[in-house]
Each structure stands twice: as C-alpha cells, then as structure tokens.
Amino acid sequence: MNEGQERGLKSFLQQTEGTPPPVFVGRAGVLADIALAAEQVWEGTGAGMRGMEKATRIVQGAPGAGKSSTLNEIARNPERLRMEGGTVPMVLMLKSGDIQGPRDILRPLAEKVHASKSREFMARISRNTGGEAGFGLGLLRFARKKEIGIEHAEPGANWGTFGAWAEQHGGFDRPIILAIDEAQRFDHFPEDPLSKLFQGLHDGCGLPVALVLAGLSDTEYSAGKMDLTRIPTDQKHNIGRFPDHEAEELMVRSCAHFGIGIAGFEHEVEQLARPCEGWPRHLHIALKALGRGALMTGGDLGEVGWRTVSDNIMASREAYYASQQSEQMEVAARLTASVMSGLDTGINRAGVIGLIEKNIGEQPSDRLPAGIKTAEEFLIHLLHRGALQRDAQKLYACPIPSFRAYLLEQGGMAQNPSPILKTT
C-alpha cells in the first residue's frame, strides 16, 4: 500500500452512504441497454429524424441495490456506453430533489450541450414564459403586464424551444442520456409541466435524448402516473444482489485498488463476503471493515485480526438494518414480521395487501402505524425501506434474506435456527 492508496482508503472509510463505490462491477446488461437507448434516439425512426418512441429506461431496486452507483458509473465513464462506430454518448445525471420544473432539467442540459450559449437559452425561456412580466411562485406565475390571474410558469420551457436553440448553435454531435436518480419521488399527474417534458422525450420529440429513471422499486409506478406508458419489459431493470462471481470480483478488485494484497488470504476474504448474500450495501460494509483492519497494518493482512473484522461487519450490518427499520415498522413490529413470514415466495400486489389486512390486529404492534391509513400505504412504506422489492414478474418479496430474518426477530417471530447476521 503506497501513500496514494492509503489516502484513497482513508477517504473511502470516511464516505457516507450513497457515495459511489471505489470499484464498479457487474450490471453489464443494464449498461448495454442504456447504450442501446442512446443508439435508438441517435438513429431515430426515419430519414433525417432523431429520437425514438418509448426509449425510456427504468432502473429500480431496494435501497442499497446499486442504482445510484450505476448512474454514477455512466456519468463518470460515459465510454462504457460507446456505440458502434465509436460515438460516446453525453451523460447528464440529475437528482430528483433538485428538479421542481422543466427549467431545472433544460438549464443544466443547455450548459452541457453549449455552455457558452446557455445564458442565451435561459433568457429565451424567460421571454417565452413571460419572465420579464411576472414573478415566480413554485410552478405558478403571477402576471403584471398580462391579465391578472394565475398560469403555468413554463409553457415555453419545452423540447421544441430547446431543440431550436441547439440547432441554431450547431445542433448535436452525439446522443444524450438524461439520467435522473431517486425518481420514485416524482408524484406528478400527466398535466403537470414536468410530466409534459418527460412525455415529450418518451413519445419521441425528434431530439437525440434518452430518459433513464432510477429509483426504488415503485419508480415504474411514478413513471406511469406521469403517463410514461408502454415501456417494454426488457427496458425495466430490477437490480439487486450480485451473482457470486461478481461479488468476489468486487472484493478482489477493491482490495487491489487500495493496495491490499490478498494472496494467501483468499479464504478469509471469501468468508467475509459470503454472508453478504451478494447485496451491494453489505459488500460495501464488509470492505470498510476489512479496510479499517488493513489500514492499521499498512495493508499486511497477515497482521489483521480477522475475528475483530468479522465482529465489526456484524455490528455494522445490524446497525444498517436498524436504520432501515423505520419508526413505523418498529411500532408495527409484529405486523411487519407477519408480512415477512408470508413472503417465502413472491406474491403479487393484491396478495401483499391481503396479507397485511389479514394480520392487522388489536395489539399495538399488530396495527397499522400512525400516519399510515391503508394496507397499500404500508406496502409502499415497506418498499421504500427495502423490506419489499418487486421483480420483473410484478411479484413482491424481501430482497435480502438476512433483513427478512432480522424483521422476523424484531417482531418476535424468529426462525430457528436464525440466520440473522451470521458471519461464519
């Protein structure tokens, strides 16, 4: 371990949840399909036309599944999306929390396409939307020079205006991937200006821009609410655990990245990774624990206390599960456990709702928690906390067996023997 690797390891150990991993592995199918989306909108459907209908992609999964890591990878290394002929798409990654309306997408996109001319584009939008005549209030604008009343703030902030401006300044030299993280937060009806902007891309507006929405397992529902319909099944990616060989690759390559030599200690490293069940967040926890041990010995694994590392992984994983168990789930611990108990195999949405309703009882821990009024609302809450995940067949299950075991134990329904947090 040299000085640079040591600094990198220290930085990694200080990272918060959501920071991109030091090494990216797997997700080859997802990356290939996003690259295909770039090709589709670049080639178009007719002579001289760009864009293609229904090219939208969805990447969804439970917390810690690696959705943000996938978007960060294509943003940092867009060459991963290189198309036939050598063209590398342009990637713009945005967070849903930074998006209130069309401007919050079109402005950074204009800066990405023609940075020196983006101010001109924003001025054009302001003129089109009466920006000189009124003042904004969220998605509404009060008019002064126009008739008194309330109107949508951004009727001119659309793909037509953006495309005309781009063509005026040389057009596009490559396709664009517009990737939005935490997209499950969008709660807009089809008539909302932001929904209309997304609909324009989804319906094929003639521009070489492909939309990728990433988020929790109900991102597909949020997209449908905005009327982004008829997305083919193979364009919706439900991601989760790594297969064993990719989990092993992540451990090996991450150790090499930080100058931690594992030769002669492959078995010990494998033993740390095995209880992670291929889950990206758990592998991240294991790498941090191993990294702390290696940092104390200058990268010499022969001096590492493997029992201490294992204990640290166990404690960190339990703390992670405690953080994923919300106050609502804690209050309704037995109801949560009853749902987990009925999920030995995947069941459909109606089945989960029926399971919740069936197990609502009179005791406090059997009731729906405060603020959650229906079984469907509780289902959505469990989705957002990672206790449930919907797969490509629209079946729901707990994506992490050890998290399921943890919730069963919290509700007094522990299985025997309990596999919770087992490290050997």
Précis, in short:
The chain is built from 17 helices and ten strands. It is an alpha/beta fold and 424 residues long. It is globular.
Describe this entry's structure for a reader.
- The protein is an alpha/beta fold and 424 residues long.
- It is built from 17 helices and ten strands.
- Helix 7 (193-202) links the parallel strand 6 (176-181) and strand 7 (209-215).
- The two termini are 28 Å apart.
Topology:
Blueprint: H1 3-13, H2 28-43, E1 57-60, H3 67-76, E2 90-95, H4 103-113, H5 118-128, E3 134-137, E4 140-143, E5 150-152, H6 159-168, E6 176-181, H7 193-202, E7 209-215, H8 219-225, E8 236-238, H9 244-257, H10 266-273, H11 280-296, H12 306-324, H13 327-331, H14 333-341, H15 349-359, H16 375-384, E9 389-390, E10 396-397, H17 401-410
Parallel strand pairs: 1-7, 1-8, 2-6, 6-7
Antiparallel strand pairs: 3-4, 4-5, 9-10
